[in-house]
Design goal:
transmembrane; about 70% helix; transmembrane helix; Arc Repressor Mutant, subunit A; membrane; mainly alpha; about 625 residues; three-stranded antiparallel beta sheet
Length: about 625
């Protein structure tokens, strides 16, 4: 299923490369292909049959109404010759929809599908290899398509106007996927391009699954009010990963004819956050996300004070953001609505709850003259926030079937893509993937502000000791953002349960600490035993080495003694031989006088020839040779 979905998304994107009409370029061809596959076994079927086949072949769930519309489009798209050849008939009877044909064949995009399948398979294999090299068990982490589907499911829910009902993934980490994306962006251009294409395909799939009306064109000149966090991201005063997609999105809004606006109440909230960061500024131990960002950027407290004083001018001049004043009468009216009361019940920061409700109700007020309040594409105003919970709350407060007033960055990007799919696919995929990385990091690693918020709640509890308090904060800093948000929500909605949960966390952490301490003690004991064993072994090795050295020394001395003995023996042998030779010579000379005369003559001859000295040298050499032995 994982590789199938990646293939589907890559295939969808490939079909749009040379067209701006998603319906004709993607929807109709995939339905033709599904009908062609169905025709291999049957000639009569229903809309549900094709719906099931598309689900099994592409891994996506398309509404039956869209299936019916697509089948009709396929028939209308046939030439007169093909209509006669296939004899394609559609039968509608109330809610029943069926079709029949003699035969049906469509192979025009089969090669493209196979190409995208190979590309997506290569991407999945590369991800698995990367994950294994990172020490991950591939069977224990979500697939890469699960990572992409996070975004697709969210957009589908937004486009269909419902709260995203995705499964809670707080216990699942997508960090291997983030690291893989960051790696291939820097080191493998082909894989990164394939990922961008798959992302665009997932956006197209979200249109198809949500029954989104592609024929309705987006309004030009739409105004977008930015929430506090979006502006802080734009100023690079949040996480480093948050800034690039936000800046790219703002530029995309400008380039597609949109207007960037900011309510004065939001500007006040931004200034309050910056002022709080100034008041608690600590370069060595940052206590707020803004403070942390300043340290990352190499900025000091003075710089932050200057930014605070020049914020209005900076936003209007450098970022082309218009600042609108919300009438005091509207603020008072919106702050006293049921929406504000209900949001304050579940929001930890009560003043933020009032701001958020006033913001989206102000957008609702600005839209009151819109000709069509039920189509996303026709909205003249939006409130852009990164707060998913606020977006979901707003959806539950829609009136008269109208669309909500709040949109998140990734959702806005998917809408702007429709302005020109062919031209904007590269920019939208880049923004989307960077936003997906930023969201994942935000979900998995709590910000300092969130930890501070949790700290404020816990410090108010009466039955938490100082030691337990330290244990709790140490534990909670390792938890996901989603889990901490759940705990904070519980502190308001279910205080007793929150208290039990807190003590359960403390008890779990205390037990874990005890286990860790015991394990550490065992490791220390084992280490000491190992060190003692090593010492004993070292002593034994030292003794053996000394024994070997003594034996070698003894052998060396014995060898020297034997050599001296042999040398003396050789001298005695030569001496005896010399004496014997001398005695033999004397006896011979006395017994044979003529020999003496011959020797004398020989000496004279040798001397006369200059060989006497050579003979003497020979004698000396012989004597030296004898002496050396």
């Amino acid at each position: 299923m994982s590789e199938q979905l990646l293939t589907t998304y890559s295939f969808f994107a490939a079909l749009t490369e040379n067209s701006t009409d998603i319906y004709s370029a993607v929807y109709v061809p995939i339905c033709k292909r599904a009908l062609s596959l169905y025709a291999k076994n049957k000639t009569i079927g229903s809309d549900q049959d094709i719906c099931n086949l598309i689900s099994s072949e592409y891994g996506i769930d398309v509404p039956l109404l869209i299936i019916r519309k697509l089948i009709k489009s396929v028939v209308n798209d046939l030439s007169r010759k093909d209509k006669t050849k296939f004899d394609f008939q559609i039968i509608e009877n109330g809610n029943n929809f069926s079709f029949s044909f003699k035969s049906f064949s469509f192979c025009d995009i089969e090669e493209s599908y196979n190409v995208e399948r190979r590309k997506s398979n290569a991407l999945q294999q590369a991800f698995e290899i990367f994950a294994k090299e990172q020490g991950e068990n591939i069977n224990n982490i979500p697939s890469f398509s699960d990572f992409i589907n996070k975004n697709k499911n969210k957009i589908s829910s937004f486009l269909s106007g419902r709260v995203n009902d995705i499964t809670d993934c707080s216990e699942v980490s997508f960090m291997p996927h983030v690291r893989f994306l960051q790696y291939i962006e820097q080191n493998n251009d082909n894989l990164y391009k394939a990922t961008k294409q798959i992302f665009i395909g997932s956006v197209i799939a979200s249109y198809l699954e949500s029954d989104f009306d592609l024929e309705a064109k987006l309004e030009k000149g739409t105004s977008y009010y930015l929430d506090t966090q979006i502006v802080l991201e734009l100023l690079d005063l949040q996480r480093a990963e948050d800034t690039p997609p936000t800046k790219e999105l703002i530029k995309l809004i400008h380039d597609t004819g949109g207007n960037i606006r900011l309510m004065d109440i939001t500007l006040d909230e931004i200034k309050t956050n910056i002022q709080n960061a100034i008041h608690n500024y600590d370069r060595n131990h940052p206590t707020t996300t803004i403070n942390e960002a300043c340290v990352r950027l190499g900025k000091n407290k003075t710089w932050l004070i200057a930014l605070h004083g020049n914020l209005d001018n900076l936003l209007q001049t450098d970022y082309k953001i218009n600042i609108d004043k919300v009438p005091e009468s509207d603020i008072e009216k919106f702050a006293n609505t049921d929406d504000a009361t209900q949001l304050k019940e579940i929001w930890f920061r009560k003043h933020s709850a009032v701001h958020d409700v006033v913001a989206y109700l102000h957008v609702r007020e600005k839209r009151k003259y819109d000709p069509n309040k039920k189509l996303l594409q026709k909205a003249s105003y939006w409130f852009v926030t990164a707060n998913r919970k606020l977006c979901e709350f707003n959806i539950t407060k829609k009136v008269n079937g109208n669309i909500g007033e709040i949109i998140m960055p990734d959702e806005l990007t998917s809408l702007l893509f429709l302005q020109n799919p062919k031209k904007l696919s590269g920019r939208v995929s880049s923004i989307g993937l960077n936003e997906l990385i930023a969201q994942t990091l935000s979900e998995e690693y709590p910000s300092r502000d969130l930890i501070n918020e949790f700290d404020s709640v816990v410090s108010s509890l009466q039955n938490i000791s100082a030691d337990d308090y330290k244990i709790l904060l140490s534990s909670i800093s390792q938890e996901s953002t989603i889990k901490i948000h759940k705990l904070l929500h519980g502190s308001i909605s279910e205080p007793e349960k929150f208290n039990k949960d807190i003590h359960a966390i403390i008890e779990t952490e205390r037990n874990n600490k005890l286990k860790t301490d015991n394990k550490h003690k065992i490791e220390i004991q084992k280490n000491n035993e190992l060190q003692e064993a090593n010492k004993n072994l070292s002593r034994q090795l030292s003794d053996i080495s000394q024994q070997i050295a003594d034996i070698q020394e003894s052998q060396h001395l014995e060898k020297i003694r034997q050599e001296e003995k042999d040398k003396i023996n050789r001298r005695w042998i030569w001496m005896c031989i010399s004496i014997i030779v001398a005695l033999a010579a004397i006896i011979v000379l006395q017994s044979f006088p003529n020999i003496t005369k011959c020797i004398q003559k020989s000496i004279q001859i040798i001397g006369g020839l200059g060989g006497f000295w050579g003979f003497c040298n020979l004698a000396l050499n012989l004597w030296s040779k004898f002496k050396s032995h």
